[in-house]
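S.,

Sequence below, as promised.
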Amino acid sequence: MFSFLQVLPLCLFVSASPSQSMADQHESVSLCPPQADHATAAGHSWFPGPPPPMYSCTLTPELVAKAREELQEKPEWRLRDVQALRDMILKEHPNLRTRLDDAFLLRFLRARKFDYDRALQLLLNYHTGRKAWPEVFQDLKPSTVKHVLDLGFLTILPRPDPNGRYILFLQPGKWRPNDYPFVDNVRAIYLTLEKLIQPEETQVNGIVILADYTGVGMSQASNPGPSLAKKVVSILQDGFPIRIKAVNIINEPRIFKGIFAIIKPFLKEKMAERYVLHGSDLRSLQRNIPPSVLPEDYGGTAGRLDMSAWSRLLLDCEEEFIVEFCQPDPLEGVVLPDSMLFEGGQAGGKDEDAFRGLRSQLYYCY
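The prediction came back faster than expected:
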């Protein structure tokens, strides 16, 4: 779990078109997620609700301009680009049971700056990751990770930063290996990311991660090996349509740098450069995340840290996640070329040997 968090700290409607008749016959038509009712939405007014069943852009003029500049998104071509990706899916992978609605496909186009081929690769990786890691994705719904949420392992800070980015806050020191399996933490984080990526503003702005490593010791640090880290890196870098813009680590122990050495080879250079280690220096943290966003616990002015609000939001979305994840394998009957297989599914012996050699050094440092 410790090494994983360094990687982090991670209605179906086809628009009218010439290809609509093909989409109407597609198996994914049954995977229509339910719309949140007004009472639920009102209860969580601090976080944007899911997109409407028929796509209508919800971006402000400022975000439209930002998407054009940073993501190569042209509003006048947006639905044409979505249709192009949809046509590629239906032609090249007709048996893939995936959502084909505009809002869903836009996530992948934005994450890959509207490059059709790279967006399709990301979509396939998104589904392949689920197949490669069934212990994480099988029966994935909030009620199955309620113990993780109740523990206060993660939350979303209620105020986005000045760049409009929501902050995923993690407390890995809350977890004890004897309490429950490590993969439950991964499941809770993945559900959170799935909810975070729904609003269009998150798709454009990305997210920030803040991880407080208070209480992390050798029991957490030595629990997962590089094969697990490699799986998580592959999912987050190449298999999930979200932009992680910064990872802030505070109160990290001395062993952190040693563990990070295991993960860094799997990280893309751009991602590795986005890690900022603050130690116990709150002023350093506040230079990256302003006090107006931080809770009082970290010298901020945003009130006391509330770990329960996000838990309630996720649990209220139980039905939505059942429809999204508790369905037949979307890759059943689909044959993918070797170039599109999930890279994190296997770990080489060299990775494990390196970890065994480093583990003794970690005990020495600790």
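Residues 116-132 form the longest helix (17 residues).

Coffee later?
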